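Re: your question from the hallway

Yes, I did run it. Sequences:
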Amino acid sequence: MPFNARTLALPATIPFVGPEALERRFGRPFLARLGANESVFGPSPLAVEAMSRAARDSWAYGDPEHHALREAIAARLGIRFEEVVVGEGIDGLFGLLAQVALEPGDRALTSLGAYPTFNYHVTGHGGTLDFVPYREDREDVDALIERMRATRPKLVYFANPDNPTGSWHEAEAVRRLMDAVPEGTLLVLDEAYSDLAPATALPSASEIRPNVLRFRTFSKAYGMAGVRVAFVFGAADAVAQFHKVRNHFGVSRMAQAGALAALGDETHLRDTVQRIARARGRLADIAAAAGLRSLPSATNFVAIDCGRDGAYACRVLEGVLGRQVFIRMPGVAPLDRMIRVTVGRDDELDRFAAALRASLAQADA
Amino acid sequence: MPFNARTLALPATIPFVGPEALERRFGRPFLARLGANESVFGPSPLAVEAMSRAARDSWAYGDPEHHALREAIAARLGIRFEEVVVGEGIDGLFGLLAQVALEPGDRALTSLGAYPTFNYHVTGHGGTLDFVPYREDREDVDALIERMRATRPKLVYFANPDNPTGSWHEAEAVRRLMDAVPEGTLLVLDEAYSDLAPATALPSASEIRPNVLRFRTFSKAYGMAGVRVAFVFGAADAVAQFHKVRNHFGVSRMAQAGALAALGDETHLRDTVQRIARARGRLADIAAAAGLRSLPSATNFVAIDCGRDGAYACRVLEGVLGRQVFIRMPGVAPLDRMIRVTVGRDDELDRFAAALRASLAQADA
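Structure:
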């Protein structure tokens, strides 16, 4: 077939199977959707209204320069317009990043078990992956620094806060990593969950470095996962590389209008952050009541340590799925002894608690 | 900078400057938006309603397999589910196509002056371009066949109907091209305007070939340019290559819901096609009244031959833009003696007619 050798050799596997595919497989719907780190607390009503209005105007392409949205983001972060590029979710931006950064065979360094979609795009563009292990269920900043100094990869991936563990590092540690990036390397700082992190975890947005790109999204705290809008910020001449290859009309009119309205509703964001924090507390209580340890989280999900190996956690996961509650689990040892549960409303968490209890009893039997 | 040499060498130019950028430059809005081949007649009301509803549910990712939409498309076209892949507009799919097909330096063959965004993605993925000229303002099927036999490019681009000329070929000619594709070559059949073409121009959708990919969109006749949803269909093992690299969650929940609803509203589609045909007639009359020849069109726009060289057409274009009517023109000679005007409502076409008259007088002076 007339495709390139790299693509023909790629596996057909995908980073995440959607809950809809599982529903089709099981032949029945999930009654709680707690697996994809979405925000059940939803978008701002102002964003919903703006998107509905934009739906009627959607005969017209959205502004390919995302001018109003980039201005609003830049103003919010205290950075310059030229330092922001908007794209179709962080995943979409990762695809572009791999396209503009990698030569065939270039290395990307990440943590073993970290966000798989980054890896997917690296591989899809001909890069190779190198890993350092997590340390005490957190990304190991020192090990990443040591390895990147030794191997000088083209890309280094670091999520803060982290998915799938929910852990975070303080700004001081992140800054240490930023300072250590060698010439010829780009640090990919995935801050998808930054709106949910303690302020002390985030270096100031205005700490622009020539070889650090920071990615943020409207999918998590803003509750707009299904809308597909995110941004990358960093040095103007670095983010400008995205403009040379991006799908200029790719961010929909509704997405631009919704994100702009969402930025204007700080009350909704603050309320959502509080509701998520409260629900995280409930998830920790549910885990404790089941005799399990949960990990501290600065995200909208909680990793629960099932206390044994991956096969055991997998049985627990399947039990929970079978009880019509959608959750996920990390794919790689030793993180795969955990299940990962997104926050939900009280009734959804009750349903999860019951499913967990029953699934543990079944897995133990 | 830690980006690849190919990207660093790319120019900062983009295929299309948006009307919003021109409005910012001129400091005033366009009063008629007739330049981007959008459909002012808008999406189906059912699609608008479905998108508004989906806006509220947009805390959740859309189905990454686009199951319902692909089923509906496959049923409509009389092809199999596995033969359809949905993406973020044809432009987005062209980016993926270049990613999966091209090795560095691979050639793509197209017509000189044809859709520039295809070229943009080829270049962005390290491919090189080869061109055959238009012949009598239509793509030259025989010349494309001859050149692809001689040079065996990896990709051959052919739009039917064509943008920017609006011309079309009959199915017989397209089939001749399809039959001539050598092994190791993929024919990229851009059918963005197929819903506006005479039925005799389109080979049946079920004529699946191992090395032909056909691209269609909801941006044109369906009036959903700002929504970003399109699809590619072809042999299952060919379109499956897109699944290995695409942004799985990239098509928004609103886009999927809107496209599905739009497919269900055949009345709106039929009405829109009729309104577009009528407006095309008016545009031809406006051109004739101004003493200009217009090209026959099977699209939602009309190319008007200004009768002299590119510099003259450019002066006419600028005159029309200056009168707050957004239109575009082909970028390459000899097509650049034309201006390209998208259909609009009667009042918008009246405004264009007045702007054209004044601009011609000015350009002649």
